[in-house]
Design goal:
By secondary structure, the chain is of the alpha+beta class. The protein has four domains: 159 residues, no CATH class; 27 residues; 188 residues, Ubiquitin-like (UB roll); 75 residues, no CATH class. The chain contains twelve helices and 15 strands. Strands 1, 2, 3, 4, 5, 6, 7, 8 and 11 form a nine-stranded mixed beta sheet that branches. It has a two-stranded antiparallel ribbon with strand order 9-10. It has a two-stranded antiparallel ribbon with strand order 12-14. β1 and β2 form a beta hairpin. α1 packs antiparallel against α2 and α1 runs parallel beside α4. It is elongated. The relative contact order is 0.06.
Length: 488
């Protein structure tokens, strides 16, 4: 279809639709608005058909659709000619009223059927165009898919051909490389032989140098593997395996002659064990000898009142707040943060434990203790020099325990609180009650002034005299108020 034919026909159809819409708007605005909408829909359809494009092989189908779309022009032309008779209805000023009424009556009798016929024709025409467009779309989709498949097949053939050529070229290159490597020229072989000869000469020179060195003196070397000894502070040193138990103890005493752990070594509060068998201690009378190459680990024994160590407790080193541990053998625990190794001791310490062993985690900072009198209801200050000594002892013990790496704990549960009838005068067994009160003081993180405020009898059935009963009552009232008699 030529360019002038297509454009002229579509322009004419658009002009006819525009004329019909303008006449209907002026003559019958409200009665035929549906016809106006259908005419606009026809106009949109004609615009889409005009812009249709297709490949050369589908050009005939597109031309037939455009021709079919333009068949509505003669119907629209006839309808426009009929409408022109009623153009006077749009110009009401200056027209006689009788003529206007006559035109309106003619419009009502003649144009109603014409409008219905035009609407029916427009619906059928638009439906026909839609059907042709759908059919053409399906055909175009099928042809496009077919062309895509052909293009994919062509591309796959080209790719296969390209891969085959590249593989062939790579094979040729590899064959040339292998041939050149298997058949090197004579000068390269001579160069390789020179390098091998130079390497052999260097090796001979090194061996000659080693043979010319003086023979080492055996008296300054180990005849056999020494013992690997790790003390409680984590220091590792070799010990000759020829040494006996007395020499090993002498080395331990020399290592801890001063510094952290001196008091514990002098008191014998430590254990020696083999890391391969932690459940069995190495003692002086043990049948296990000191064999060459073995390892010995030293751990300090620390007594502690309270429950055993559980999963939720924090590290035992002062100042370390870690709660994560690793267990290499299932029994020993090692802190991930500070590497403190601790386990349950195999040796039992005598009771009561020394104060340095169960020092509280929180230092006793209050030098003066506030005391409230029971009778007069007034406050007074009581200070003792023992508070200062206790605080200094705690600081020294805390700094010493921060240096420990291997420790073993002796857990001792606290005894039950005895029944007390009268704090001022009570019958009880002196030695056991004294031990209980001392342990309770350290459990409550108190210093010794509370313990100094009473004195114990020399034998059984004695009497306790409380000098500072207000302080004593205030600190022990949670455990003792309401009790009747001691019973022990």
């Amino acid at each position: 279809m030529s360019f002038g034919f297509a454009v002229g026909d579509f322009i004419a159809a658009a002009k006819l639709i525009k004329d019909i819409v303008s006449i209907l708007r002026t003559a019958a605005r409200a009665e035929y608005q549906e016809l106006v909408l259908e005419l606009r829909g026809l106009q949109n359809s004609l615009n889409h058909v005009e812009r249709l494009r297709a490949p050369p092989e589908r050009q005939s189908s597109i031309t037939s659709i455009k021709v079919a779309a333009l068949t509505c022009t003669h119907v629209l032309d006839e309808f426009v000619n009929k409408l022109r008779k009623f153009e006077d209805l749009s110009v009401q000023h200056g027209t006689p009223k009788a003529k206007l009424w006559t035109q309106k009556l003619r419009w009502g009798f003649t144009m109603g059927d014409e409008v219905q016929k035009l609407r029916s024709y427009l619906l059928a025409h638009v439906g026909y165009l839609n059907m042709r467009l759908v059919t053409e779309g399906l055909s175009s989709t099928y042809l496009a898919r077919q062309s895509i498949q052909d293009a994919e097949a062509s591309i796959s053939r080209n790719v296969s051909r390209t891969l085959a050529s590249s593989i062939q070229s790579n094979i040729k290159m590899m064959s040339r490389t292998i041939t050149s490597q298997l058949c090197p020229p004579l000068d390269s072989l001579i160069g390789f032989m020179n390098k091998i000869w130079q390497s052999n000469m260097k090796i001979i020179g090194l061996l000659t140098m080693i043979l010319e060195r003086p023979t080492p003196t055996l008296q300054y070397t180990w005849f056999q593997a020494p013992i690997k000894f790790e003390d409680a502070l984590g220091r590792v040193l070799p010990i000759p395996s020829e040494f006996d138990w007395l020499k090993l103890e002498a080395i331990i005493f020399a290592q801890f002659a001063s510094g952290p752990g001196t008091d514990k070594v002098k008191a014998g509060e430590y254990e020696l064990f083999d890391p391969l068998n932690r459940n069995q201690n190495i003692t002086k009378g043990a049948s296990q000898p000191l064999r060459p190459g073995m390892s010995i680990t030293m751990a300090f024994i620390i007594g502690k009142y309270g429950h055993n160590f559980s999963e939720g407790d924090r590290c035992l080193r002062p100042g370390c707040l870690s709660r994560e541990f690793r267990s290499p053998d299932g029994n020993e625990r090692q802190c991930i943060k500070c590497n403190l190794c601790f386990d349950k001791a195999r040796t039992v310490l005598p009771q009561p434990h020394r104060a340095s062993f169960f020092a509280p985690q929180t230092p006793y900072k209050n030098k003066w203790t506030s005391v409230r009198s029971i009778k007069r209801k007034r406050r007074r200050q009581v200070g003792t020099s023992h508070d200062t000594r206790s605080h200094r002892s705690y600081e020294l013990t805390r700094n010493e325990q921060m240096c420990f790496k291997n420790i073993r704990i002796v857990y001792t549960p606290l005894p039950q609180s005895p029944h007390v009838k009268n704090i001022r005068h009570t019958e009880f067994i002196g030695s056991s009650y004294t031990m209980y009160l001392k342990a309770l003081c350290h459990r409550r993180r108190w210093a010794d002034p509370c313990f100094q405020s009473f004195r114990t009898p020399l034998g059984y059935g004695g009497t306790v005299r409380v000098n500072n009963r207000g302080l004593y009552r205030r600190r022990l009232r949670d455990d003792m108020v309401g009790s009747r008699s001691c019973g022990r």
